[in-house]
Fold Pyridoxal phosphate homeostasis protein.
Amino acid sequence: MSDIINNLNIILRRMEVACRDSGRDPNEVKLLLATKTVPADRIKVALEAGQTLIAENKVQEIKEKYESLQLVPHTSHFIGHLQSNKIKDILKYNITCIQSLDRLDVAEKLQQRLEYENRKIEVLIQVNTSGEQSKFGTHPDQAVNLVREVAQFKNIEIKGLMTIGLFSAETEKVRPCFQLLKSIQQEVLAQNIAGVSMQELSMGMSGDLETAIQEGATIVRVGTAIFGQRIYADSYYWDETKA
Ligand SMILES: *Cc1c(COP(=O)(O)O)cnc(C)c1O
């Protein structure tokens, strides 16, 4: 378990250096722990070490770990593919933000359910900035429109944008993805849409968090670099045909 603490310290240090190098205040950038496939007792180690923000990709995993994590204070986001038939379940588990809203019809279903439960939820609009077929997210050209449409739903509070960049070891190939998300943020801001906040830019993972911070990330989502390699390929979570 001490590997987790060590890894956490390395990540926090990397974030700090990236902020310093790009002239940003480290308090502007939050660390989100991507906990898919990680057992609750390992997640607890990170929470007890002072981390507060975690996120899962699948409802089944949220459900399995929910009870054991209740004893440690934390905030939960959802970063998996959001499907209409899972909305009701996701809302059972005290998720404060869904980072992966990418379709109007799903937003509509979400609004209906929230209205029924008489509550609100925060969302980020997920954008596919890499152009890869296997990645979820709205097309960059459609993003501003989607924000405007979702903004009409009174129980859904838009807080910003999320992207999974190009999966590449070459950071200079990933950078344009993050720049694209930033430019969409600026476009949305220029339109001054009522009720829409563009405060959060959720981008950057284990391999590319420095690049993301340089390009304006406010949330970096880190799994592997803290908890170790997963046994499932990421395509298990990201590929439409397997989700
Ligand atoms: C798994 C996952 C991450 C974390 O990826 P790592 O490479 O393990 O750091 C970030 N975002 C999403 C949406 C994920 O599914």
The chain has one domain: 2-238. Residues 34, 36, 57, 79, 164, 205-206, 221-225, 237 surround pyridoxal-5'-phosphate (CB under 6 Å).
